[in-house]
Amino acid sequence: MKLKTLASAIALSGATLIALPSMAADTIKVGVLHSLSGTMAISETTLKDTVLMMVEDQNKKGGLLGKKLEAVVVDPASNWPLFAEKGRELLEQEKVDVIFGSWTSVSRKSVLPVLEELNGLMFYPVQYEGEESSKNVFYTGAAPNQQAIPAVDYLINELGVERFVLAGTDYVYPRTTNKILEAYLKAKGVAASDIMINYTPFGHSDWQSIVSDVKKFGSEGKKTAVVSTINGDANVPFYKELGNQGISAEDIPVVAFSVGEEELSGLDTGPLVGHLAAWNYFQSVESDANEEFITKWKAFTKDANRVTNDPMEATYIGFKMWANAVTEAGTTDVDAVEQAMIGQETPNLTGGVAVMNKNHHLSKPVLIGEIQDDGQFEVVWSTDGVVAGDAWSDFLPGSKDLISDWTAPVKCGNYNTKTKACSGQNY
Amino acid sequence: MRHLIALCCCLFGLLSLPAFSAESPISKELLTELVDTKLSKLQPVVAKIEATSGEDALPLFNTLLAGKLYYVRATKDVVGQYTLDGDKRYQDVFTSQDVNGLDKPSFGSKEVKKIRVNNKLRVYLRKAIAGIQLTSKSPAVREDAVHALLAKLDKNTVEIIEELYPKEANKKVKEAMGLALALNVANDKAATVSSRLKAIETLSGSLENSVRNHLTKLTNDDNASVVKAANGALEKIAQRANRFAFIDQLFFGLSLGSVLLLASIGLAITFGVMGVINMAHGEMIMLGAYTTYVVQLLMPNHIDYSIWVAIPAAFMVSGLMGVLIERLVISRLHGRPLETLLATFGISLILQQLVRTIFSPLNRQVSTPSWMSGSWEINPVLSLTLNRLYILAFALLVFIILVAILRKTSLGLNVRAVSQNRNMAKAMGVKTHRVDAMTFGLGSGIAGVAGVALSQLTNVGPNLGQAYIIDSFMVVVFGGVGNLLGTLVAAFSLGIATKFLEPTTGAVLAAIIVLVFIILFIQKRPKGLFPQKGRAAE
Amino acid sequence: MTRLKEWFSSGRSTGKHTMPFVVILLAITFLASAANLYLPEDSALYVSTYTITLLGKYLCYAMLALAVDIIWGYCGILSLGHGAFFALGGYAMGMYLMRQIGDRGVYGHPTLPDFMVFLDWQELPWFWLGMDQFWFAMIMAVLVPGLLAFVFGWLAFRSRVTGVYLSIMTQALTYALLLAFFRNEMGFGGNNGLTDFKEIVGFDLQADSTRVSLFMITAFLLAIVFVISQRILSSRFGKVVLAIRDAESRSRFIGYRTDRYKVWLFVYSAVIAGIAGALYVPQVGIINPGEFSPINSIEMVIWVAVGGRGTLIGAVIGAILVNYAKTRFTAILPDAWLFALGAMFVFVTLYLPKGLMGIYAQLMAKRKTAKPQKSEESQA
């Protein structure tokens, strides 16, 4: 008897609490889908704060379309299935107009079907492996051709590197990037014996053997460099081991794609001076827009030592573009905004202009920076102009015939130029 | 030739040194050029300075290489940055006198600007410095200089070395110079075959990388006998190198073993002796690592000694936390090991979140003391990293101390008595509650000390403990619960096995193979390598 | 004999809650489903699809908690590796769903899933063969966890690995699988796992009707598993199992092959976990190696501990309550959640060794002494 009432009470209160009634649409809702707890919180919390700062900023300017912006923050807790669940919550319960979110590829892949089903709109601000273009996602981070390939060109042309160690954490981003790089290097005439590929698990901490192998590989007379797609926590022990085994940047430079200012803030950079990173943005770039952004950021976080990084710039660009597109379209309707987004131009923080292309990827400059002992990067090289992000790599056999074009008449994220067919889209 | 001149200049400079000259030995125009030139065009300027100033440029180059060279925005004077009591101050590069005078405040960060260098320039600077240092007074510096020049010998360098070789008194330096000259001869197609063969013979005794690379190139020589000799020499070198590679791998294994030992030895006490499953053990390690971080924060100018403060501090912090946990939670769950497991897991979550709240989820920066950085180079193919060497020694020391405590002290006697037969011990007047708390405190304290060591190898972050908990349990179970020697043997054998598997299987598969092996091993021998004997074992 | 029977049907007994539980469960399920499908969206009683998938997820977790409870609460085997069986069942379903995508993947390859094209694989690995058949995949979802449990249990229980040793070994097992599934060479999609599913046995996975059906199937299967488990545990077999929990050596001396009982119970539990995993994947839309992580497996144990181990209904209630709290708390105070979860572990083990059902039993016992007549009625 008692149990029955207890159970039904629980079920009822559960159902009502879960199904919180959604508010009336007198504000424009901006969903934030970044992990605030768990392993990815380290990186993603920063981006949540960036979006909140941008929302606050926009509201000071009077909001959009005469309405105030309202940020809706949820925590997917670094749990991949939870990204889909929270994404659904944002779109279905909260009825947000746009989502800024995700860091890892798997979290994006997890939320993607929900976005496509409910026709949501998401901005993804992190460098990734490419090989994707969804109607409902705008990719404001770098595609491999905006990070990896220019970095390798720099190594070959400027540093005279002839041998390459492709070291990465074993997941899809390093796997794909290294596949692309391997094909690219071979096309450049680098022999297979001059390429060493190594994968390690997440959070790998014992780098002795691998660093020693790299040292051996690099001591065979040809100038050697390490192209690192090592992720997150594994970097600190990796760089420490490099320093201790006496590998300096002059002997074997390491160019990293996942190490930015924020990662360096947990490291004694003294022994790392001269190692490289390739990004589309560095905090040290001198421009008015950047200075303003950094000042605002430090004021917003109330921390004078907080650093900025590339995914933050990507969030910044994405937000600005979305705001412009909404103004242009005069509505927050996803289809209208999606079309208005294409061709949007926004000043980036490094003194140039970012353009949103037909494939939902940005055109951005590529910068190579050297680590300094103050935890910042010194830009030592940059591309002459901007590089357009390529959704489908030309160096992978599976995707070299694919293009993405979200304008009429193609309107497809993976259009095969040979068979003239668009595969696997639900819409 | 120009180096001879430089040498004379240097002698002259030495004579005139006592006179405190404010005049820099490098002309102001050149220094201004250095300040004004863009990074990408800096190399020719440095070359110009090298050519005109020779040895005088050494302090300038060294400061530049270290990234400590700044210039004063107002005057374009070049100054070197140094740290005094945590303050950034600036000194004359050549005389090491503080430019502002020590009693006055230094430049603000906006008044000076750093002269940046990049990789290319660093490579160039190193070679320039090596060239200058060939005539250094210290034999060790001279030897390093010759080694640094081996990789890219040019005609100029060879000439200088030829000139210096007969005069060289130090045996080691002379050997290195001989090697350089032999390299030159072996590569010289104009030299007679017999002299080239003799040079190759000399080279075959060296393990230097550059020697090996030159020999590899020589295997494509036109002359058949040179090719044969080069191949023979390479084979000889490879044989020796392989032997050292084996030692290298063994060291890696021992090092990994020492990390496993440190991580698991505290557990061997709490789990092995007390029978308590402490899932928060990893967090005790984490607390130790954070203690190191805090100690370094408190004494920023004495990083080199911070470790000696951190070790006892970490022992106290983790030990006290251990006593607290034992008193508040574990003692109430006596005889319910599975519940203890769950409760301590809860504690581990709380501690992680606590650290995350206090120190932020970001990794914290723990510096390595200078005496722990770098490596001990035994020969060009074998060098042992110092931090790991120290940690290996430290792990063994901790182990010995722990064994001594358990064998020789009255606490140890009590601990053994309680672990063998609690009721009997109680009957004999042993205060079992006190002993339990002390034992748990000891085990946790040791884990904290392990944290100090691990902070030198890996991330200091909230997840530090998680990374080691499963491995530590594996070690203790594999070695045999309640047997410290078993833990030692298990840690080192697992470490070595992993490192010898890794080259063929890769890191992930090696870890999986070791795990599966332990699972199967425990099914076969549930009590581990060294089962505890005696009546109390059941 | 009658006293013995009475003893079994009181206190820790499983029997008397079965009917009310099944009725309540199915009633809520039907009402929620109907409210989702037939009520207009602006109705006050409308249940959103989000809520339906959330409830479906909770029910999968409840089934998993049931599996953990069966061996921990009734046989005293604390498995810290049940996440492995759950994930294996999930992967079997995931592989089937992946094959159903067919040539609608982004690369348009007729048989290979996208991630294989992506990594330049030429043909399907052998263990993917047959996975395009629903019945085959479902057999695998049950068989693989069952087989793993059998091999592991057979080895462990025969050599009398018990207590904490066994717990640590199960943890090592799921950890080893975690590492293995992270490897891209394994052919299970590495860290990304399997996702982007399109349809299940011909029904569009994104349609509300499919979601509701999946939810109803989950509830139905949970009810069936509940009833079967209750039957098994109150049978002769179940009594031996209880005896093993309370005094293993004694049961062995009486002549029972305790290792066999343990192995089969372990296998049964693993199979349930596998089924739960297979139901979980189409509802959340992704399966990846994170499900193998040891932390997940420990969390399952805490669901059971909170609800009350040794009572099937406790496991179900524990799983639903803890997960509901998690959904709420992580939304409101993400930082506080881990404190709360940690404190819950400590509190429950220290003060509520029998969980919420223990409190309930105490209350009932009080009522029994206060109003003996009424309680007799309710038992009849």
TrEMBL record, chain A:
Report the InterPro entries cross-referenced here: ABC_urea-bd_UrtA (IPR017777), Peripla_BP_I (IPR028082)
Task: Give a yes or no for keyword RNA-binding in this entry.
Answer: no
Q: What is this protein called?
A: Urea ABC transporter substrate-binding protein
Q: Which CDD domains match?
A: PBP1_FmdD-like (cd06355)
Q: Give the taxonomic lineage as stored in the record.
A: Bacteria, Pseudomonadati, Pseudomonadota, Gammaproteobacteria, Oceanospirillales
Asked if the keyword Signal belongs to this entry, the reply reads yes
Name the keywords, alphabetized. Signal
| Signal peptide per UniProt | 1-24
UniProtKB/TrEMBL annotation, chain C:
Q: Which UniProt keywords apply?
A: Cell membrane, Membrane, Transmembrane, Transmembrane helix
Q: Does the keyword Methyltransferase apply?
A: no
The record's section on PANTHER family has: HIGH-AFFINITY BRANCHED-CHAIN AMINO ACID TRANSPORT SYSTEM PERMEASE, SLR1201 PROTEIN
Name where it's found.
Cell inner membrane
Identify this protein by name.
Answer: Urea ABC transporter permease subunit UrtC
- Membrane topology, record value: Multi-pass membrane protein
Mark the transmembrane ranges.
Answer: 21-39, 45-64, 71-93, 134-157, 164-182, 212-229, 261-281, 301-324, 336-353
**Which source organism?**
Marinomonas sargassi
Pfam families linked to this entry: BPD_transp_2
InterPro entries with a match to the protein in the record: ABC_transp_permease, ABC_transptr_urea_perm_UrtC, LivM-like
